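Collaborator request log, item 7. Partner lab (contact: R.S.) asked for a structural prediction of Replication-associated recombination protein A to inform their binding assays.
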Amino acid sequence: MQNEPLAYKMRPKRIDDIAGQKHILGPDTPLYKMIEKGHVPSMLLYGPPGVGKTSIANAISGSSKIPFFALNATHAGKKDIEQVVMDARMSGKVILFLDEIHRFNKLQQDTLLPHVENGSIVLIGATTENPFHDVNPAIRSRCGEILQLERLTEQDVLQLLKKALADEERGLGRLAIHATDEQLERIANAANGDARKALTLLESVYYASDEIDGTTRLNDNAIETLAKRIGVFGDKGGSNFYNLLSALQKSVRGSDVNAALYYLAHLLESGDLIAVCRRLLVMAYEDVGLANPAVGAHVQAATEAAVKLGLPEARIPLAAVVVEMCLSDKSNSAYQALDAAIHAIHEGKTGNIPNHLKDAHYAGAKELGHVGYHYPHDTPIGTFGGWVKQQYLPDELEGIEFYKPVIAGEEKRMAAIYEKLKSFKS
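Returned to partner:
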């Protein structure tokens, strides 16, 4: 059909035609060799939109010569699955490509999985969500291969664009088109590793450009204008979004300002301002912590301001605190100490609260032995405030240390106080 989108027409027919993904389908990989010999295992394809999940499934079918059926788990019903099962019985074996497999319900699963087990249906599931979080374990256990697809490199996309311009049967090769290398590079760069977006943008730019002397010359202004409309890398609420949050936090923890701002930009473009603000607050206490306690208040103020301002102005206070956290002294000692205490409790390291620490604000407390507490504020010690030597941990845990100070920033001063107080106890 002439009106089919270019991205659809350019889908690979064999695995040798697949753009990128050489780490799983290169000529030297086990999967490539299996498919070339006609053996196709059930598998899960995991990756962001536009990296070629549907294309790979089609190409595997083309290389293996096994009949191919495609369904979407969101819309497919029991009857759709039963129809595929009937076709499998007639053909001996079929490939079922099931998009959005993380949405597969139990009724669909019960209908399909016995036939996956007996080998009459080869299941190729596709998902943008982490299969270990969102795909039913029963499905995962029947898919021998869980393949994480990588976003295409700019060079991969560039080669695909040139192939589309040259292909006379499925691409634009029958048309007189003039495109400079620089223009194709800009289209590849704008697509951000998404093959579908790259081909769609190329096709749109072609139709938005003028024909001069029988040749359509791609228009620079059309590229610039249309590139802004194709969206960015990041699916709000999906696995990719959480990967971006993770990358932001790890970049801040690693004090890489440029990387942190890059991931912040992607996250803000996704539009989920609240999730970004929540993660920044966590980071202030998890990664900066006691080394710079003021950062927590700064991030709280910045995130409150961001929510009140809304996007795009929200980016201004958030950028400031991201840079501040990147370049701040850092410590995770406080929450690590708490986690150590929680772990000790789970291991059964508990004991009775010392009597002098128990509540004594009621008649009869003295008769129960809840006496002997010394009020530290009554015993000043230098400029520190009040301190008195007395036991606080249960007898069974006396002497245990959960807190291990990090000698960084403001915590360096706190660590010195901690060690001094330890010496008073001995």
